[in-house]
Specification:
Layout lengths: L5 H4 L1 H4 L2 H16 L2 E2 L7 H5 L7 E5 L24 H14 L10 H4 L3 E5 L4 E2 L11 H13 L6 E5 H5 L11 E5 L16 H11 L11
Parallel strand pairs: 2-3, 2-5, 5-6
Antiparallel strand pairs: 1-4
Length: 220
């Protein structure tokens, strides 16, 4: 159980045969291998940001695969853990966009409290093996999550960084929502259009235009 309105929203999906099989596979993986994030944090994105409160979705691929990095939130790392290069670039763009100083922490938990759903499309990964849980069934589940958010009758901003996230645009059909997209913040692509894309101010400008409270993107 997630513990908020997501339980009802996702109940039917979680009862489907593919999802039950997925959970059995993942449970065995945790028993026999080192898997990230902690088992109790698999659904943390949903626990931290309810369906009702979701105003922004930042879509990631799969969790960080290094020791103690992943905390169940896309792009976020646990307090005290060195910020990965993509996250460093996200903070650089945040400073350039809105002037906020780069924080010491790499944890994005404050954003989740503002209504930002930090969703990975794959929710688990084996240690030191990126994309190792790709195609087990998580994508089918998180595609349905995106569809459910698409059904909301209040505007949501979808922030899509990189080709993987941008491929999910076909799921976002409701005209009341807004898409902010750019290349990925990774060092391989950040200079090809991520830097200077101003996703944070663009998001807030849209939310304010709809009479919604903007996101406080500052992390202290």
């Amino acid at each position: 159980m997630i513990g908020n309105d997501w339980d009802l929203i996702l109940k039917e999906e979680m009862e489907k045969e593919y999802f039950q099989s997925l959970i059995k596979i993942i449970t065995e993986e945790y028993k026999n291998k080192t898997i990230y994030p902690k088992q109790t944090e698999i659904f943390r994105a949903f626990r931290n940001t309810s369906y009702k409160d979701t105003k922004v979705v930042i879509l990631g691929q799969d969790p960080y695969h290094g020791v103690n990095q992943a905390e169940g939130l896309s792009f976020s790392v646990k307090v005290g853990v060195t910020k990965p290069p993509s996250l460093q670039n996200i903070f650089k763009e945040l400073k350039d966009d809105l002037g906020y100083e780069i924080p010491n922490t790499g944890s994005l938990i404050p954003w989740t409290e503002e209504g930002v759903l930090l969703l990975n499309t794959v929710l688990t990964v084996e240690a030191n093996k990126p994309a190792s849980h790709k195609d087990l069934g998580w994508e089918k589940f998180t595609d349905e999550v995106i569809r459910k958010i698409n059904e909301k009758n209040t505007p949501v901003v979808f922030i899509l960084w990189g080709s993987f996230a941008r491929n999910k645009k076909s799921l976002i059909t409701n005209k009341i929502h807004h898409i902010v997209e750019s290349p990925h913040p990774s060092p391989f692509s950040a200079y090809n259009g991520f830097f200077g894309s101003k996703p944070f101010s663009k998001t807030n400008k849209f939310l304010e235009s709809k009479g919604l409270k903007p996101i406080n993107w500052e992390i202290k």
